[in-house]
Description:
Layout: H1 7-14, E1 28-32, E2 38-55, E3 58-75, E4 89-90, H2 98-104, E5 112-116, E6 124-128, E7 137-140, E8 152-157, E9 160-161, E10 175-179, E11 186-188, H3 190-204, E12 209-213, E13 216-221, H4 227-230, E14 234-238, E15 243-246, H5 248-251, E16 252-254, E17 262-266, E18 268-270, E19 274-278, E20 287-290, E21 293-300, E22 303-310, E23 317-318
Parallel strand pairs: 10-19, 11-18
Antiparallel strand pairs: 1-2, 2-3, 4-23, 5-6, 5-20, 7-21, 8-9, 8-14, 12-13, 13-17, 14-15, 16-17, 21-22
Amino acid sequence: MVSCSDSVCSSNIKMADALCSDQGDQCGYRFQYADESGTSGYYVTDLLYFDTVVDPSMISNSSASVTFGCSTYQSGSLTKSDKAMDGIFGFGQHSLSIISQLSSQGITPKVFSHCLRGDGNGGGKLVLGEILAPTMVYSPLVPSQPHYNLDLQSIGVGEQLLEIDGAVFATSDDQGTIVDTGTTLTYLVAQAFDPFVDAITAAVSESVTPILSKGIQCYLVAPTSSLSAIFPKVSLNFAGGASMNLKPDNYLVLGDPTDGSIPWCIGFQKATNGVTVLGGSADVNVSIKSNKNEYVNAELSATVSSSFTSLEALSVCIGRFGRYYGEP
């Protein structure tokens, strides 16, 4: 248990990442997520065990002492059994993130990569440290921001570049474009969302039946049909000429079967504020790398491999149906 007198606690109280009260000497925390769920508890210290790749043919067992939160209370969606999880892994610039703690101990540089597996069974890969991948294309991250902010400039559907004013994606006090695997879906600002949905519908209307389900645009598809043969690819085009190419399973979600047909629905949502969030659905089969100040995108055979190189951001949460944006 971390006490309030511990330097770890006192330094993070200043950063609003920890709190103490007169009722005890335990260093606590309270976080609120974007989906209005929340968690609170106390900080503890324990050993983190991991494998260290010495070279391609040698792996050694390693461990390090890390401080993390032990939750005593959850609210909102965190209490629902279908969204149960073992925990939240934070990979940000702040001193209590796992990657920052390991870096401060000289165990690994501030570089990490992860890839969310897209076969429906969950899981994936997480690497702490540097990896190399071919055919990478870089785009600079917006500096001095609390999230992974990117300069998204345009969106393409198939061969069509959508008529969207790129200014709606620009970073300012109340808008911007961030990447966050902790957010399940992708959220586009209204000025981008409506043209995006209209373009998808126009591209597939001769092959499928468009329907609305609970206000969400869906498409009835024959069970034997191939999504990739019907639905267009989507390109997210960033500064520096980098494009992230999304396949249909990156922007569609499966609905409930209806009359022998399968409804596939737009998995992007309309943002209620000025922030475009590229969430976990867009990151399936995507590798995220964080180090300095760049976003990297590379398409490798059948998968899309993207990377971030920055820790100019708060935290990327693995396996989380939500995201921490507010104050503790």
